């Protein structure tokens, strides 16, 4: 190893969208200030480390993806440690600390990290530091920052203990006793009163200080502002000393070229599997023009491909950034004339970034416009490290100070309110801070990969051979003080524009005639769901809860079930329930032909509700699906407890799925004549048995 073994620790990260890697890089950067060296690797690079023989402490940063899965980069590692033949003392020599990243909006919060943590414990590994679980719903930094702060003392204690166990007397690498170890934090500490930045020991304020002069700044906010905003703060924040992150080292070099050629094929940007380019053969608007949300159903022709799926599976659509926003970004960067020029992306010679390499989602050579259109998530909410880098590109003193505040610890609530919760993107920041003129290499270093968007299949290949349907709402981001213009979702807005010529006048029928011969095509790849499928035994009853576009996978379920009933008249089929809800019966009842499934016996029970329709009935009908479910408490309990049936939920988590889960817990408690805690335990058992299944989003 290149690291000094007396002060080395192994640092592994498993990332899906780059967040875990960014945090690992921050740990790597800070390690030097604490007299430690981090040997950092992606967890997938199993040829570069060996936990079976690892003697030094191990730090793991791991995210969660999908429905509680480890990130793609950790799949091989997880499969390896889950080998059931491994003995319980396999990792008895290993000491580790783990930081899990997740989002509590989803059911299996931090399950990627929890899975690895639990399995390492089962194999005998020991914690040298408590596990941290950071929640992106409220802000990762609320856990990440203090977890990293406490890591250094824990590492030093672990290394000191290791040296003692090895009988070594030389513990210079971990100077002094653990209790006396200074708690050094590698941060830039902004002192507004003297207008300079200091890198210093937060715990002891010792003489070991590095200073960095800044230009004098004017901290006076315009008098007309009466409350904080994205661009202005007020006391105490505006007068506070700030702890801001260290400046990330630059590591990308961009070279413009005079030569011409062709851009790479989109399929080369996808590492998840085979990509298929398929035509859109039908587009139907399912909602009325006056509905609050616009829902579209698209039908794809997959007959000339080997693409295969089951009802309940998801697939991903490769989408570009909005063309107008790309042009706008080129204009702001002063590169409007160079959009079609080819650029070569290389690692900067002499960079101080550990393990620097060209981002794999960016071709080594392509046009600038291709990179901004297909490779970078220009709508991404900027991370604090990006804000820190933007400080150096900002000439106006007031704007510079505000960016420093937004990336500082003291400004954490402002960052959460004005950036993260407001969905402020990079373009919005450039409008809000016009003196900020970042370089192209900075964008490539800090903007994450443009992710393909996932959708649930809303059809059955058995019912409609060679067809794949899906349903989505066109996402809208209204204008607000931090965002001067309204925007549509990256993928849903693009799809809506793409299929506008295909839209039919009929908006509520699956079997609309008059398919177009249009050659509009999109690129897709499979994202199978291992659990959200129909019961293997058709005689088992099941219940489906899918308000709004959450009904999408259940259309595929019912189509598949109908075809099975036609093909296997001698089979026994269990009863089926569907709970559907929307705002208005006449505006956004997406699939009124559900009655057809009811009439032909495919669907046994259909229960609907409309949350915004007024009622003249003496007793108002239930507004939401969770309210309807409570009306059928005995049936829910019978299906789940007596008949060992399945319960499926698809749709919004925060405003629906959690409410449904609460209703089911109450029903189970009531029917079992037990307390709520017992009901929660029963629901947890159903989840473990894969009989209570969710496909939800925030």
From TrEMBL:
Annotated FAD-binding FR-type domain residues: 273-535
Catalyzed chemical reaction(s): 2 cob(II)alamin + A + 2 H2O + 2 H(+) = 2 aquacob(III)alamin + AH2
Enzyme Commission number: 1.16.1.8
Subcellular localization, as worded in the UniProt entry: Cytoplasm
Domain of life: Eukaryota
UniProt cofactor(s): FMN; FAD
CC per GO annotation: cytosol
Protein keywords: Amino-acid biosynthesis, Cytoplasm, FAD, Flavoprotein, FMN, Methionine biosynthesis, NADP, Oxidoreductase, Phosphoprotein, S-adenosyl-L-methionine
UniProt GO MF annotations: [methionine synthase] reductase (NADPH) activity; flavin adenine dinucleotide binding; FMN binding
Main location: cytoplasm
Matches recorded under PANTHER family: METHIONINE SYNTHASE REDUCTASE, NITRIC OXIDE SYNTHASE-RELATED
Protein's name in the database: Methionine synthase reductase
Organism, scientific name: Serilophus lunatus (silver-breasted broadbill)
């Amino acid at each position: 190893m290149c690291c000094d073994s007396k002060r080395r620790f192994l640092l592994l990260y498993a990332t899906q969208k780059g967040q875990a890697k960014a945090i690992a890089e921050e740990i790597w950067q800070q390690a030097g200030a604490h007299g430690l060296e981090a040997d950092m690797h992606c967890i997938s690079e199993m040829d570069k480390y060996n936990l079976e023989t690892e003697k030094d402490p191990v730090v793991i940063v791991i995210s969660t993806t999908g429905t509680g899965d480890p990130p793609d980069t950790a799949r091989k590692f997880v499969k390896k440690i889950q080998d059931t033949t491994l003995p319980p003392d396999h990792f008895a020599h290993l000491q580790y600390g783990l930081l899990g990243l997740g989002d509590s909006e989803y059911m299996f919060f931090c399950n990627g990290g929890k899975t690895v943590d639990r399995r390492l414990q089962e194999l005998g590994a020991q914690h040298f530091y408590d596990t941290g679980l950071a929640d992106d719903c409220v802000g990762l930094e609320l856990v990440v920052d203090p977890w990293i702060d406490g890591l250094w003392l824990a590492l030093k204690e672990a290394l000191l203990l290791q040296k003692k166990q090895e009988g070594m007397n030389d513990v210079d690498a971990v100077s002094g006793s653990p209790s006396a170890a200074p708690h050094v934090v590698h941060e830039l500490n902004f002192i507004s009163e003297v207008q300079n930045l200091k890198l210093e020991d937060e715990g002891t304020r010792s003489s070991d200080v590095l200073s960095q002069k800044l230009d004098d700044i004017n901290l006076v906010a315009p008098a007309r502002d009466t409350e904080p905003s994205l661009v202005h703060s007020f006391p105490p924040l505006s007068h506070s000393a700030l702890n801001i992150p260290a400046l990330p080292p630059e590591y990308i070099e961009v070279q413009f070229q005079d030569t011409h050629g062709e851009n790479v094929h989109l399929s080369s940007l996808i590492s998840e599997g085979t990509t298929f380019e398929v035509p859109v053969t039908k587009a139907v608007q399912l909602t009325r023009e006056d509905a609050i949300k616009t829902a579209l159903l698209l039908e794809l022709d997959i007959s000339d491909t080997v693409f295969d799926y089951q009802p309940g599976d998801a697939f991903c659509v490769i989408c570009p950034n909005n063309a107008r926003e790309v042009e706008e970004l080129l204009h702001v960067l002063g590169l409007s004339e160079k959009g079609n020029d080819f650029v070569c992306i290389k690692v900067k010679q002499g960079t101080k970034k550990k393990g620097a390499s060209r981002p794999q989602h960016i071709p080594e050579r392509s046009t600038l416009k291709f990179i901004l259109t297909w490779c970078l998530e220009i709508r991404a909410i900027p991370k604090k490290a990006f804000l820190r880098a933007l400080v150096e590109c900002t000439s106006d003193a007031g704007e510079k100070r505000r960016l420093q505040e937004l990336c500082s610890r003291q400004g954490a609530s402002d960052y959460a309110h004005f950036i993260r919760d407001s969905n402020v993107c990079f373009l919005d920041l450039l409008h809000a801070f016009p003196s900020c003129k970042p370089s192209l290499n900075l964008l490539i270093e800090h903007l994450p990969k443009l992710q393909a968007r996932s959708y649930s299949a809303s059809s059955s290949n058995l019912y409609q051979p060679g067809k794949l349907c899906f349903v989505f709402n066109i996402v809208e981001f209204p204008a607000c003080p931090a965002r001067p213009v309204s925007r549509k979702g990256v993928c849903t807005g693009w799809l809506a524009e793409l299929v506008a010529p295909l839209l039919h006048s009929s908006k509520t029928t699956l079997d609309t005639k008059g398919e177009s011969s249009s050659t509009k095509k999109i690129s897709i790849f499979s994202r199978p769901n291992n659990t959200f499928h129909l019961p293997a035994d058709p005689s088992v009853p099941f219940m489906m809860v899918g308000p709004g576009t959450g009904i999408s996978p259940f259309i595929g379920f019912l189509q598949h079930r109908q075809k099975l009933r036609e093909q296997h008249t001698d089979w026994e089929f269990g009863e089926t329930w569907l709970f559907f809800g929307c705002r208005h019966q006449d505006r956004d009842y997406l699939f009124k032909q559900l009655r057809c499934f009811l009439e032909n016996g495919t669907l046994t029970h259909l229960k609907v509700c409309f949350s915004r329709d007024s009622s003249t009935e003496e007793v108002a009908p239930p507004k939401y699906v969770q309210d309807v479910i409570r009306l059928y408490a005995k049936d829910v309990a019978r299906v789940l407890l007596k008949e060992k049936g399945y319960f499926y939920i698809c749709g919004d988590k925060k405003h629906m799925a959690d409410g449904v889960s609460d209703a089911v817990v109450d029903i189970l408690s009531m029917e079992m004549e037990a307390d709520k805690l017992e009901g929660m335990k029963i629901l947890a058992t159903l989840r473990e048995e894969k009989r209570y299944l969710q496909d939800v989003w925030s």
